[in-house]
């Protein structure tokens, strides 16, 4: 890769993930510094906190089993009557809120465990709870200063309000501009909201929604968050969404027709020029660990369980299915991926619960990475398990029940898992954004450690205190070297493209680079956690780490091959010709392309 050493003069874009003075393992990884000391010894959940979580989980599990028939919810597309009230009464809609507000005061890790448990039983319930607890109105409380907004939200939380976050609009969430407009009235004492939102989780059952809207100003437009009481005149639920999965989850299109919002119910935040406000952005990043990584891990664990159930009862020509080499590879791959996702969730959340005196680390970068790492890994696990179960995997649970077969709901999990790659942001676009905002933020302007990045020396002191088997030590050595190679590639790219926009036009390259960084992140975490458990004894996870890292290395090798070898290709001209309708009409021969009539 040719390089020039021209210094960069470009000013940095805004990066809300960076916290000055607080170290971040992944941010340093982007810069080519492998901070093993930040992740090792790997954190564990505090014993008392774990027990507090166990108690809530026991009661919550009982409520789920008693009140929710997950297959019936999926088929009827409706949550059981009275379930919402039961969830509110049990405090499950206020998992982290102060007990004084009727909340359970749970830690982030225990909140995750509740969402995971819900997803393992009924994904619509999990989605309702995770939206409510992580991006609903109550989640803003820690960021609100004393005043009328805080008082109003506190009162609504105390009253058991259900809420959701209305951001996506029909034109598409990726647009920087929000078409919902807030117009100041009454000399600035209130705003009139006009616009439409789509896919708002909990929208149809919410008493309050937080809505992003554009306030047009004399100098420039600003996006702000408005807290809207859904009993306000002009608010309506204009449609109920039905998804491939999540049947029964209340998601709706919301219309705001001259809805009056008092000025004190608008969150005024620091200046920003992004499509999401800083606080909403922070909540969504952490929230996705619950809404996406929680169900991803739950489905992975179910896949492990289902694989065992099926493989142990199935034979091929009198030979147990579990004795075939390929099946063993499939089961062990899922096993190692469940271990990896559990590790990722722990890393992303245990630090959130760190007490005074414990070392502060910035987890935002890892929380961003968790979205794709977990949903894509989940997708691999569910897809693999569906193949393992053959036709029984593809058949619905109710169909199996009708013929007396074991009704494992693999087909339902498959439908749910696909949505995890879309809700909260489409997978490839998250990679693309992360590369721009996270990785290359470190390279424009050129980083101070550019010379260290260029040097051939790799710090492998991590090997000294790692309690790992030889294969895992080799994975750790590989990771340390790869972190350096990764940074060298980024530095060379940034130098070759002094104007970042020129580099950012190469989206495919950026996406693949982010995938390399994410793979390196999860390998590091898996090795750090494994080192904590040691090499001996029943808790040792050395085999799982080796399995996971070996597979991750194959993916990394493949990504590098594509990054360095792939040629520009014909994608631009071929897709432009097709989209314009200019060429290859014969490829549509013999298919009926008109949209079929669909009853609404
Ligand atoms: C189950 C579910 C629950 C949801 N819950 C909520 C909720 O509670 N609140 C809420 O506000 N929203 C919610 N959403 C919406 C969700 O966040 C969006 O669907 C998601 O962010 C993608 O946005 P979009 O569908 O508007 O697609 P768009 O943003 O319009 O994107 C369309 C396509 O363009 C691609 N694209 C965009 N920019 C680029 C680019 N620069 N280069 C290349 N490709 C690009 C995207 O990746 C995508 O493939 C939910 C969605 C689902 C499926």
From TrEMBL:
Chain ranges of the Acyl-CoA oxidase/dehydrogenase middle domain: 168-259
PANTHER family cross-referenced by the UniProt entry: ACYL-COA DEHYDROGENASE
Pfam family name, one: Acyl-CoA_dh_M
Keyword field: FAD, Flavoprotein, Oxidoreductase
Family assignment from sequence similarity: Belongs to the acyl-CoA dehydrogenase family.
GO terms, molecular function: acyl-CoA dehydrogenase activity; flavin adenine dinucleotide binding
Name assigned to this protein: Acyl-CoA dehydrogenase
Reported cofactor(s): FAD
Keyword Oxidoreductase among record annotations: yes
